[in-house]
Amino acid sequence: MVFVKIRAIRATHCQFRLLHLLPSPLAPRPSPFYPRPSPLPPGQFGFDADGWILKLIAVRQEQTETDPNMRIIGIIPARYASTRFPGKPLVPIAGKPLLQHVVERCRLAKAIAEVIVATDDDRIREVAQKFCRVEMTAAEHPSGTDRIAEVAARCDCDALVNIQGDEPLIDPRVIDEVARALDREEMSTAATALKSAADYENPNVVKVVVSATGRALYFSRRTIPYLREAASPEDVRGQLAAFPFLKHLGIYGYRRETLLRLVKFPVSPLEAAEKLEQLRALENGIPIAVAQVAYDSVGVDVPEDVVRVERLLAGKTVI
Predict the structure, then answer these.
(1) Which tens digit of pLDDT belongs to each residue from 200-246?
(2) Which residues pair with residue 115 across a beta bridge?
(3) What pLDDT is stored for residue 65 in this prediction?
(4) Domain 72-314: which CATH number of 1.10.540.10, 2.30.40.10, 3.30.2320.80, 3.90.550.10
(5) ω before 225 within 30° of 0 (cis)?
(6) DSSP run (H or E) holding 123
(7) Is 264 exposed, middle or buried (0-12, 13-18, 19+ CB in 10 A)?
(8) What pTM value is reported for the model?
(9) What is the dihedral of CA 61, 64, 66, 72, to 10 degrees?
(10) What is the DSSP track for 232-296?
């Protein structure tokens, strides 16, 4: 009887450890701060370990597939006015408007049923309607989130992904990861490893800290967390070597009703302090799943970025 109980406990422990060995798009990357258990010796527990592994892999694959009954659309907010780069969505890059590059990349995402451009400008509408569905919005929206919420309110969808209109090299696999995360959470986003000293010190590069379950704990323009004993704050390279800092990528997924609820909340204190809209969600109890990806954003912020992006496009293999 005791022998049977011990075997049952061991089998349960093995199943638990095997689950943690399987890859997940929301699981923390292996690091000294997120250790993973070592592989188990074959045949140790007296049951069909291979069979268990195959079953667990099948379960994990089901969890990472987008719900086929969920209609997810991609919305790209586009404004003509820009302090640093007026008319940016229509600027030609390698023979096409910037916005068209973004739309074409979004259409490569498997989880997106339709791509829509949301704009308040007739000049953008006239160009974009040649290659994409366009929805006109009110001009007075304070943010891109409010603009896409207006479109979502009148669209047939269960969820949506908000894609920045100035990233002509957006990886469609990142869009898919953000979309898939909506099977588990009301809201999602993406982050990548922060590697450069310039990004570390730049307040325009937003940082995020993530829980062991893959949810955002906080976003900040400051570099977080603060490493009290790892290295001197002035030793940026030492800081980067001591901890896997995460750089937030400006892409968001929302379940439709969550987005419509979110834009009704007033600007929150932390949002006002950091000027980061996603903090409104956290302050109002909306969890945000963070997909950790290898892609790093390449945006067009100023006219000088056009040449750089054209060079990257010339040497890029399209996924």
Answers:
(1) 999 999 999 999 999 999 999 999 999 988 767 788 999 999 999 99
(2) 74
(3) 57
(4) 3.90.550.10
(5) yes
(6) helix 122-128
(7) exposed
(8) 0.78
(9) -160
(10) -TT-HHHHHHHS--EEEEEEEEEEHHHHHHHTTSPPPHHHHHHT-THHHHHHTT--EEEEE-S--
Distance CA 264, CA 261 (A): 5
Q: Phi/psi of residue 58, each to 5°?
A: -60, -40
Domain ranges of the chain: 72-314
Do 115 and 131 form a contact (C-beta atoms < 8 A)?
no
Under a CB-based contact definition with an 8 Å cutoff, are residues 274 and 233 in contact? no
Residue 118 is encoded by which pair of tokens?
């949301």
Are 306 and 87 in contact, with CB atoms under 8 Å apart?
no
Residue 230 is predicted with a pLDDT of: 78
DSSP code, position 120: S
Side chain identity at 312, as an amino acid letter?
Answer: L
The DSSP bridge pattern shows strands 288-292 and 246-255 to be: unpaired
